[in-house]
């Protein structure tokens, strides 16, 4: 019977691998089309020069950082119950997230063949260059940390030898605030140019990583790869809800501060967001945030895995909308808005990603999932004897 | 030496001649304008504000401000945009531009930096302007160069020579006897978004 079950699991996993591979290929085709026809294939323009790809970069850098924190904290603060799942978190940070974040940047730039200039001609005053260094160090730290955690699980090393690297991973995770500097250091963009942004990025990073870990745990629990108690999932849900509450407070206070004067740069951008062309997306963000908080926080005495899964998915949607709305509200409301000579790619608001942008992004997500699946299959990341038979 | 430009807003009639001269001189692709004439009036270009007969209209020509403290230079991750030490002109190196558009995000002066979203196409089959200009590239950002190719030949930027009302004045700000230094003397002027601390080299005379 056990053999039959495992065969079923293996064939289901293979089916998913094929689906992910097909979507990854579809993404590659979309990228090829974008490279040959140009970024005109996107719905980006002179005002909204950044869109879905940059939001993808923000979210996956956040998941990478949050995963590192998730993996490091149990060893630094002695949270025994979370330790068995740190290998998965560390690998999630190393592979799916860093690779996806890097790819979102690669597909966003017009000349990816010149990306080596980051190494030969890097500009130390550019926050984007700092991000490049951050991502590279996340990759190295996560791989080393994952390896150590696997060795620890196999009893080949002692726990005290992990603590040094856990401290490095923790510091690297906190430094996700550097990602926010790409935005918050720009005087041309007053909505981003606030000290609230680094905090918001850190909170969103943790919430996104926790949400992804909850989704993964749900799937891996079902497949028998791990056995995470529902109580632990509920704890993660409550922590995510608390983090989303802070995000909600940041979003609402920023908007109130911007709207109160009744005029000015911030007012123009926030009124566009709340009652103008960005309103649909903004109110969706509000609904998603509140729904995720309620689903994740209100667990009662017997938490339900399905509700937690739903809450985690909606939390990710809310984080996407927070980042996307912040980007668009500012880009569509530049400091100089006088009408003038029309240029190619002039304002077409509100921004909705083109089908090609969506296809390419789904391709990147699928590649991340594929790598994640490969890791689960090849590495000893789980908590049960079934670990390598996923 | 620090090149600067003064634009006398009392003389500008919004004829767009400087914009067209820039486009022709630099053989700019379709849809790209390094030098745009904005209208401080109604909701559309070249329309007045107010209700007849109480109408008013003012023009604001805007190109790269060649800032002394350029936000774009700090932002570019690969040093594709830089400030020339010898004359303060902010240059965009097409061969190094990776097309990340971070300089466009960082620049406070909306739309002075533009991106080639597609392979450059031109209104006519024959290249226009000066043969010395750097060819335009696909997937790169470009902007006003203060016509460095003309400066190298001892000429002034094309927009300066074309303006029929002599609203634009160009020269070395470090030389007190230059045309631009004399044009600024005794006049009231402002810089665009001065509060952002970028220290632009364009002086708007009022």
UniProtKB/TrEMBL annotation, chain A:
Localization in the cell:
Cell membrane
Bilayer-spanning residue ranges: 12-34, 54-77, 89-107, 127-145, 165-187, 199-220, 241-260, 280-298, 305-322, 360-381
Q: Which GO terms describe its cellular component?
A: plasma membrane
| Recorded family membership | Belongs to the NrfD family.
* Entry keyword Transmembrane: yes
| Primary location class | membrane
Q: Which UniProt keywords apply?
A: Cell membrane, Membrane, Transmembrane, Transmembrane helix
In terms of domain of life, where is this protein from?
Bacteria
Q: What is this protein called?
A: Ni/Fe-hydrogenase 2 integral membrane subunit HybB
What kind of membrane protein is this, topologically? Multi-pass membrane protein
* Matching InterPro entries: Electron_transfer_protein, NrfD-like
Which Gene3D superfamilies does the entry mention? Formate dehydrogenase/DMSO reductase domain
In terms of Pfam families, this protein maps to:
NrfD (PF03916)
TrEMBL record, chain B:
Q: Which SUPFAM superfamilies match?
A: 4Fe-4S ferredoxins
- Tell me which PROSITE patterns the record gives: 4FE4S_FER_1 (PS00198), 4FE4S_FER_2 (PS51379)
Where do the 4Fe-4S ferredoxin-type domain residues begin and end? 3-32, 55-86, 88-118
Q: Which organism is it from?
A: Desulfosporosinus hippei DSM 8344
GO MF, one example: 4 iron, 4 sulfur cluster binding
Write down what this protein is called. Answer: Prokaryotic molybdopterin-containing oxidoreductase family, iron-sulfur binding subunit
Keywords carried by this UniProt record:
4Fe-4S, Iron, Iron-sulfur, Metal-binding
> What domain of life?
Bacteria
**CDD domains named among the record's database cross-references:** PsrB
What would be one Pfam family of this protein?
Fer4_2
């Amino acid at each position: 019977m056990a053999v039959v079950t495992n065969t079923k699991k293996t064939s289901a996993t293979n089916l998913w691998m094929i689906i992910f591979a097909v979507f990854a290929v579809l993404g590659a085709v979309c990228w090829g089309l974008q490279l040959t026809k140009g970024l005109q294939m996107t719905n980006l323009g002179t005002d909204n020069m950044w869109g879905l790809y940059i939001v993808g970069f923000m979210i996956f850098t956040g998941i990478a950082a949050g995963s590192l924190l998730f993996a490091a904290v149990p060893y630094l603060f002695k949270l025994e119950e979370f330790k068995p799942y740190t290998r998965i978190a560390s690998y999630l940070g190393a592979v799916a997230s860093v690779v996806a974040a890097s790819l979102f940047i690669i597909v966003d730039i017009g000349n990816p063949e010149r990306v080596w200039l980051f190494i030969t001609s890097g500009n130390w005053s550019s926050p984007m260059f700092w991000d490049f260094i951050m991502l590279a160090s996340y990759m190295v730290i996560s791989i080393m940390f994952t390896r150590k955690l696997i060795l620890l699980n196999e009893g080949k090393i002692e726990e005290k030898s992990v603590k040094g690297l856990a401290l490095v991973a923790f510091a690297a995770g906190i430094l996700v605030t550097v990602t926010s500097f790409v935005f918050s250091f720009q005087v041309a963009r007053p909505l981003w140019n606030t000290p609230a942004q680094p905090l918001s990025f850190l909170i969103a990073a943790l919430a996104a990583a926790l949400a992804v870990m909850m989704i993964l745990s749900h799937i891996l629990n079902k497949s028998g790869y791990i056995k995470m108690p529902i109580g632990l999932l509920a704890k993660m849900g409550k922590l995510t809800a608390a983090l989303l509450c802070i995000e909600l407070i940041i979003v609402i206070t920023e908007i109130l501060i911007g709207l109160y004067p009744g005029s000015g740069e911030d007012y123009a951008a926030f009124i566009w967001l709340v009652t103008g062309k960005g309103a649909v997306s903004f109110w969706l963000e509000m609904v998603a945030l509140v729904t995720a908080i309620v689903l994740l926080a209100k667990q009662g005495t017997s938490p339900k895995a399905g509700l937690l899964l739903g809450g985690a998915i909606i939390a990710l949607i809310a984080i996407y909308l927070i980042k996307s709305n912040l980007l668009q509200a500012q880009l569509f409301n530049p400091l100089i808005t006088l009408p003038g000579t029309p240029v190619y790619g002039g304002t077409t608001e509100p921004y909705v990603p083109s089908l090609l942008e969506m296809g390419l992004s789904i391709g990147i997500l699928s590649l991340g999932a594929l790598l994640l699946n490969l890791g689960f299959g090849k590495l000893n990341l789980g908590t049960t004897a079934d670990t390598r038979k996923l | 030496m620090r090149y600067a430009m003064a634009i006398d807003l009392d003389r500008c009639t919004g004829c767009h001649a400087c914009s067209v001269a820039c486009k022709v001189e630099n053989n700019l692709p379709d849809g790209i304008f390094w030098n745009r004439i904005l209208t401080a009036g109604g909701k559309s270009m070249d329309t007045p504000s107010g209700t007849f007969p109480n109408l008013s209209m003012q023009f604001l020509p805007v190109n790269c401000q060649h800032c002394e403290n350029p936000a774009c230079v700090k932002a570019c991750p690969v040093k594709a945009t830089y400030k020339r030490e010898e004359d303060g002109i902010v240059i965009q190196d097409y061969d190094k531009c990776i097309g990340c558009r971070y300089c466009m995000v960082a620049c406070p002066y909306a739309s002075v930096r533009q991106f080639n979203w597609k392979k450059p196409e031109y209104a006519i089959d024959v290249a226009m302007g000066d043969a010395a200009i750097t060819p335009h590239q696909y997937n790169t950002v470009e902007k006003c160069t203060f016509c460095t190719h003309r400066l190298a030949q001892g000429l002034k930027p094309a927009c300066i020579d074309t303006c029929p009302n002599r609203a634009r004045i160009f020269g070395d700000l470090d030389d007190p006897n230059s045309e631009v230094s004399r044009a600024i003397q005794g006049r009231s002027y402002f810089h665009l978004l001065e509060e952002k601390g970028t220290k632009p080299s364009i002086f708007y005379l009022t």
